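Technical annex B. To support the medicinal chemistry partners, we prepared a structural model of the target in complex with uracil, based solely on the information shown next.
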Amino acid sequence: MSLDRRRAALWLAMGLGPEWVLRDDVVDGAAAASARSPVDASTLEGHSAAARAAAIAGMAWDELEAAVAACTACSLCKTRTQTVFGVGSRTAPWMLIGEAPGAEEDARGEPFVGQAGRLLDNMLASIGRSRRADASQSVFIANVLKCRPPGNRNPQPDEVAACEPFLLRQIELVRPQLVLVMGRFAAQAVLRTDAPISALRGRVHRLRVGDGEVPAIVTYHPAYLLRNLADKAKSWADLCLALDVEAAAASRA
Ligand code: URA
């Protein structure tokens, strides 16, 4: 059994699974860049999904942001006002991942700027964090999808697949010490599982990023919390778990 498989089995036995193993060809930027076929980074059009993913895996921030803005890989490009790349410090210790832009995010080009975003900002402030890139404890916030699904419908599998290389590259570039995944949809997409959020919360998942690992915590989506106030206490517990995981990692370093 390979080391990776042994480790995955161990994590599962410890109740820490499931493990999310990123495909090496997608996230190993250096390897991908050297194996890269001549994909036009400005359009990324007319290439196989693998060639497109490999090209994205080798991109630097500016190139990645331009590629997202120009993306026509799925039909959401026809209905979006603009793409929503992400916000915060690109070297933040925490990366937060939501589902997809809504109407206000589509209009403003920034994730979580509506009512749910205000709740998220308050939750972050309660633990001394902020989306402001110049804050002492900044976070980077991104979504699984960079374009708004019309009418805020659920993202479709082809849309998630087309956007996935962008998110993977963002995670690799930020190299956060911790990922906080918000909501069932984002958790299932990021962790590649069908498990319900009740089974995903309250444990530490491990994301393979390049040649390292990043702990990931699942919590409720802020929009869900607006409708289910009683679960705010559970989301507080999730934030405390994230702080504990971060503190434990710092004490080991
Ligand atoms: N919901 C999300 O998941 N992301 C946003 O950016 C806004 C609302």
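Notes passed to the chemistry partners:
The pocket of uracil is lined by residues 98-102, 105, 111-112, 116, 143, 223 (CB under 6 Å).
Strands lie at 19-20, 87-88, 94-98, 139-143, 178-182, 205-209, 212-219.
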